[in-house]
Write a sequence for this structure.
């Protein structure tokens, strides 16, 4: 972040009216970005490389999930072949379902599932966990993903010739 900021500042402080200078500056920024990538990429690899044990969903969060008792009406909406996403048993009226924040409802099998997993068995929506390490890792992952996106965008911008052609300026 700071390296990008200083690269961007260097760019704007040298800012000149002519296109040639702008392109030169852009090349400098690109160079600085590339050199910074050396530190960013191992950081990303390090984070994604290791197989991370995903902790179970927070007991407190699971306990607060709303419970819906399956009625014939809901069952009709789900379709006659509605089945448990976990054990594949057919659902029946009277089953107690729990509603996840992603709006998927799941059968009584959900509880034991969430004792071991932290995600919706249908769409993989992740519930909060009690594991602070995992939660802060997840936050960090999000930040890295964002940074990766910004980097990719910058590459596109810097790689574009000022006359908007693709011939004059390509790596
Ligand atoms: Zn089941
Ligand atoms: Zn879901």
């Amino acid at each position: 972040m700071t390296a990008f900021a200083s690269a961007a500042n260097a760019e704007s402080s040298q800012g000149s009216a002519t296109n040639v200078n702008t392109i030169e500056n852009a090349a400098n920024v690109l160079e600085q970005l590339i050199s910074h990538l050396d530190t960013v990429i191992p950081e990303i690899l390090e984070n994604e490389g290791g197989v991370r044990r995903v902790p179970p969903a927070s007991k407190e969060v699971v306990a607060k999930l709303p419970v819906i008792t399956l009625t014939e009406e809901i069952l009709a909406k789900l379709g006659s072949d509605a089945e448990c996403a976990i054990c594949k048993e057919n659902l029946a009226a009277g089953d107690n379902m729990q509603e996840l924040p992603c709006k998927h409802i799941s059968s009584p099998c959900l509880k034991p599932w969430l004792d071991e997993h932290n995600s919706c068995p249908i769409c993989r929506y992740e519930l909060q966990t009690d594991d602070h390490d995992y939660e802060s890792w997840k936050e960090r992952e999000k930040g890295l993903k964002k940074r990766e996106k910004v980097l990719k965008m910058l590459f596109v911008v810097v790689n574009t010739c000022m006359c908007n052609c693709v011939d004059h300026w390509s790596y």
Q: What stands out?
A: The mean pLDDT is 77. The chain has two domains: 2-53+132-158, 59-116.
